[in-house]
Structures are given as structure tokens and as C-alpha cells.
Amino acid sequence: MIRAFELAVRQLGDPKLRVVIWQSLLLSLVLQIAIGVVAWWALQSFATFKWSWVNETIRWLGGGAVTVLALMLFPASFGIVISIFLEKIADIVEGEHYPQLGQARGIPVWAGIRSGVVFLLILVALNLVLLPFYLVALFIAGLGAVLFYGANGWLTGREYYEQVALRRLGPADVKAWRKANAGVLWLTGIAIVFLGTVPILNLIVPVLGVAAMVHVAQSLKPPLNLPTRSR
């Protein structure tokens, strides 16, 4: 996994990939602003207690809370970004490192976008459900981070791998490969989510994450019930 991210970082200077980076950067920035606006609206809507001092406290802490919520929910936007740019990114990475694989059959754009939207909704719902637990975890050092990165990393690793793998494998084969390598994909997802919570860097994480996942996909062990095949 570490090697996968190392290769992905090295290729960020590729002129062909640089164009995609700028395109995804713009979309990521728009989504980041949108998430911030939604988080602010949600926070203000939440400040409806009958005690005015509670509402004032919530509003006073609003700036910091919006920043935290925006960072928490930003990984949810990754699915939209990768659904649009995944084919380009994966083709560039495979053309450079795995030319023997040939051209992937790809996945329909509408299917990728649908998957990205579903991923976004699930991740937003998950984080909203876990929000009370995050607040409780603030009183236990490190627990909130473990909960956040663990839950979001699992979903992110799954989404990234499926989007990459479906370009070459059928749904049943993708499921089998994913189950056989659940731990590696989970750790990869955690790494992607962690990088996604680093300001500025998080804007290029969708590109970096896809590039790294292409390398990870080529290093996975085959399922016991399937023959070794090209990935």
C-alpha cells in the first residue's frame, strides 16, 4: 500500500495527469464550499433550543464547528469527483505502469456518477448517525479519530476499489476480490480519508486516491475460488 501511494505521488507531475488534477481541483473546491455552506445551514437549524444561551453558544462556536463538519463530510464528495475523472486517471496510470493490461472496457459514465452519488449519500448519512458518538468520543483521547477514520476508511476503500476494478471485471469477480483483500482495501481507504482531512492536500486526494488504488488493485492476492487473471 505504501508503495502504491509512492508511485501515485511520483506521477502527479505527469503532464497528462496534471490536466485532470486541475479539473478535479476545481470541482473539489466547489464541493468543499458547498459542504461548508450546508454545514453552516445545518448548524444554524440545529440551534433551536428553548434556552437562548444554548443557541447563542452554538452560534458562537459556529465557525469552528463548520470547519470541523466540513472536514468530516468532505470525504463524502470524493465519490462525485472520482465518478467523473476515474476513467482518465486510471487509463493514464495503467498506460504508464501496466501497458500489458491493454485498454479497459470501462464503465458507463452514468453508472459511475450514480455510484458516486450513492456513495456520497451513504457517507453523509453515516457521519450524521455517528455525530453523537463523535461528540462523546471528544472526551476520550483518540477515540473520535479511530471511529471517524475506521468507518469512513472502510466505505472509501470499498468505493475506490469497486470503481477501479469494475473497469475490467464483472460485479461477481469484483466482490470476490474485494472480500479476499478486505484488510488491504480498508487500510488504503483509511489512508485516503486521512489525506482528505489535510487542508489543501485534500483537494487533490480524489486523483491521488484513484492512482494509488490502481496500483493496489494490481497487487491484490486472488480469491481462492477464482483463477488468477488480469486485473
Describe this protein with a few key phrases.
231 residues, mainly alpha, 10 helices, elongated
Molecular structure report:
With 231 residues, the protein is mostly helical. It has one domain (2-217). 74% of the residues lie in helices and 0% in strands. The chain has ten helices and no strands. The chain has helices at residues 2-10, 15-46, 52-60, 62-73, 78-97, 109-137, 143-165, 171-180, 182-196, 205-217. The longest helix is centred in the first third of the chain and has 32 residues, at 15-46. The chain is elongated, with a radius of gyration of 19 Å. The mean pLDDT is 80.
Describe the SSE topology:
Blueprint: H1 2-10, H2 15-46, H3 52-60, H4 62-73, H5 78-97, H6 109-137, H7 143-165, H8 171-180, H9 182-196, H10 205-217
Helix pairs in contact: 1-10, 2-4, 2-5, 5-6, 5-7, 5-10, 6-7, 7-8, 7-9, 7-10, 9-10
Condensed summary:
This protein is mostly helical. Helix content is 74%, strand content 0%. It has one domain (2-217).
The number of distinct structural domains comes to: 1
Quaternary structure state of the chains depicted: single chain
**Unreliable segments (pLDDT under 50, ≥5 consecutive)?**
none
Cα-atom Rg, whole angstroms?
19 Å
Largest sheet report = none
> What proportion strand?
under 5%
Write down the overall mean pLDDT: 80
* Helix vs. strand class: mainly alpha
* SSE series: HHHHHHHHHH
Helix share bin: over 70%
Q: What is the global morphology?
A: elongated
Record field, number of beta strands = 0
Termini Cα gap: 17 Å
Number of helices: 10
